[in-house]
Amino acid sequence: MKKQPLLFWTISLVLFLFTSCSRNAAPDPEEQIRISVASTLAAIPSPTTVPQPTPYPQPTPFNLSGLFCEYQFCIGHPVDMAFFDVSAQQNPAAPSSYGVGYIAALSGNRFISVLWQLAPGAADPEFMLDLILDDADIREGNLEVKLVRNMNVMYTSITSTATSVFPFGGSGAWTCGDRVFAWKVYTPQAETASPLFEEALSRFTCGQ
Fold first, then answer.
1. Domain 67-206, what fold?
2. How confident is the model at residue 7 (pLDDT cuts 50, 70, 90)?
């Protein structure tokens, strides 16, 4: 009868040790992996939102073919022609400039010339027609007067005895800023002069 308490305590001690060992047993490796993966994913920073690209205006294509640009103005011309500075050829010491100039272009079937000069406040450019037309040129028909992009424009058809190769033509004059311009063409056919003037003026701009 005295051995029962000892047996009881022995069994209790074994159960206690078994329970303690069970509590201190190594954790499941798969569970550790799952915990580690979850912790790693939680620590990954959220991706920064990529900023949207700023739209910039695209350059407008500008066709330089058949366009003369000097002396702070541009004017259209047939692509098979190129202007040269008549003023510089006549007097190398006094070439064309912003304030005054004379240029011309020649091809096998037409001759074009352009004059300009300073005339601040001038609204009527007709006097430029008198400058660019010479004694061999005769005005034909009525003088056309119109407003083109805020420019006072005049145009007249002409005939000319300057050369038998180009008996017809046309001449125009207009104001732009503080300058006045005059244009003239000699052609073999009368009907080609006016379209050439319209082409030249459609691409005309000046530094105002």
1. Protein Transport Mog1p; Chain A (3.40.1000)
2. very low
